């Protein structure tokens, strides 16, 4: 009697385990981050239930889709990937219904083309109840990868695993029979343009014709040959010298200034002036030492050059909240920045910004997810006109917020603003996230 009772119970136990562990899905479809949707692709899949289930391997066809939040990233950006199994390779093989929220999926997305490797993805422990003999619903897994190479990068769905927490903790791995699976998504990465951090300062702002002026530079390419040159407005004079940047990209050199029309001094890498690889002009004046005629008096006055400065209306910005599971744009506005350029001379200025990653309680949001839409206004009567930087990602490498060009006479007062938007990936863990946006005026 006893053995007769226990044997059917063991069969029911095995069936129950089998119904759980061969479930090659993990619940209803989840929200994908906004971005580029991929193409549904089919591929042969081999799923192996745990031995305890007593069920043979399942060979079937998986239909899947890979989507991304940014199909045109720059090198250094972090791309969010969503791997959706639209149709799993198997359905519930038993008459036993499966309860909700017992399955947790993990997997990988295969990269190809300009960048190779695998992206690890995972989904939440979330599934709808599955009736006996019923079809399994779709499920989604998410992950990220950092772009390291420019060019076309392909994304193909890869192997996935279902971990079940029902009676026992068990895994059912499903592998691509003939890897790689067809390409579902392609992103085209471009080289990022670094912000020019080169800067120079002068040992003096004026001198007599033939005097030597000290030029100090920072932010140049280590070991680069740097040309020091005089400028008369927008034209280079014949006064030049060369110096070599040290391992830290700094230098200290001297330039003999003979041209009396000199209004500034520049430093640059390469054969000729290039704003992307140079710094300046720093204002410089050659003293007028012309003798005074007999029975005459030379009258002079001085307009004192001021400084280039900025101030902020505040140092804290609260972005709008987003919902867990949906993600999306967390928006706000930069505190107004006021720039005062009272230096005189021919040099314009550039205001750049870079941001750290957003740190939270259990995760981080990549700095590349923050973008801005700059705006700049010029106070009436200012010699220069402010130009707003381009809208786009800020990131850890930085971007230009606003600037004014070089000119014969520059200066003025300016106000700079920007709309801010942080693209929060779906299923970012709840909590407060913070980052530091650093502004640099040169």
Automatic annotation (TrEMBL):
Span list, region Disordered: 381-408
Keywords, ordered alphabetically: Signal
Q: Which residues form the signal peptide?
A: 1-31
Q: Which residues form a coiled coil?
A: none
| PROSITE patterns per UniProt | PROKAR_LIPOPROTEIN
Claim: Signal is one of the keywords in the record: yes
User: Looking at the record's lineage, which domain of life comes first?
Assistant: Bacteria
Q: Which residue ranges have biased composition labelled Low complexity? A: 389-398
* UniProt keyword Signal present: yes
Q: Spell out the protein name for this chain.
A: Beta-xylosidase
Give the source species.
Streptomyces cellulosae
């Amino acid at each position: 009697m006893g053995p007769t009772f226990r044997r059917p119970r063991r069969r029911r136990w095995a069936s129950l385990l089998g119904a759980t562990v061969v479930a090659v899905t993990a619940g209803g479809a989840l929200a994908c981050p906004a971005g580029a949707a991929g193409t549904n692709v089919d591929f042969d899949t081999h799923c192996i239930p745990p031995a305890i289930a007593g069920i043979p391997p399942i060979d079937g066809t998986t239909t899947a889709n890979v989507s991304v939040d940014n199909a045109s990233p720059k090198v250094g950006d972090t791309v969010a990937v969503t791997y959706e199994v639209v149709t799993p390779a198997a359905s519930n093989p038993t008459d036993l219904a499966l309860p909700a929220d017992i399955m947790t999926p993990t997997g990988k997305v295969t990269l190809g083309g300009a960048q190779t490797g695998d992206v690890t993805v995972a989904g939440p422990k979330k599934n709808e109840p599955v009736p006996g003999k019923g079809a399994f619903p779709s499920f989604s897994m998410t992950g990220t990868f950092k772009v390291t190479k420019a060019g076309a990068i392909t994304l193909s769905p890869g192997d996935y695993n279902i971990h079940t927490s029902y009676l026992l903790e068990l895994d059912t791995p499903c592998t691509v029979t003939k890897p790689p699976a067809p390409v579902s998504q392609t992103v085209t990465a471009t080289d990022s343009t670094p912000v020019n951090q080169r800067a120079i300062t002068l040992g003096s702002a004026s001198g007599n014709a033939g005097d030597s002026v000290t030029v100090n530079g920072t932010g140049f390419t280590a070991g680069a040959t740097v040309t020091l040159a005089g400028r008369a407005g927008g034209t280079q004079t014949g006064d030049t010298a060369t110096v070599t940047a040290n391992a830290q990209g700094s230098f200290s050199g001297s330039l003999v200034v003979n041209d009396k029309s000199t209004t500034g001094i520049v430093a640059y890498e390469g054969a000729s002036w290039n704003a992307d690889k140079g710094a300046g002009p720093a204002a410089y004046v050659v003293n007028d030492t012309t003798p005074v005629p007999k029975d005459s008096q030379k009258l002079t006055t001085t307009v004192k050059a001021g400084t280039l400065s900025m101030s902020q209306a505040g140092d804290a910005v609260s972005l709008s909240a987003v919902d867990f599971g949906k993600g999306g744009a967390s928006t706000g506005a930069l505190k107004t920045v006021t720039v005062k350029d009272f230096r005189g001379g021919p040099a314009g200025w550039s205001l750049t910004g870079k941001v750290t990653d957003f740190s939270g309680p259990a995760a981080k949001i990549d700095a590349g997810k923050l973008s801005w839409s700059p705006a700049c206004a010029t106070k009436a009567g200012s010699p220069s006109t402010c130009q707003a930087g381009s809208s786009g990602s800020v990131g850890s490498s930085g971007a230009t917020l606003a600037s004014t060009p070089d000119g014969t006479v520059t200066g003025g007062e300016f106000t700079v603003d920007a709309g801010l938007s942080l693209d929060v990936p779906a299923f970012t863990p709840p909590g407060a996230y913070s980052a530091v946006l650093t502004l640099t005026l040169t």
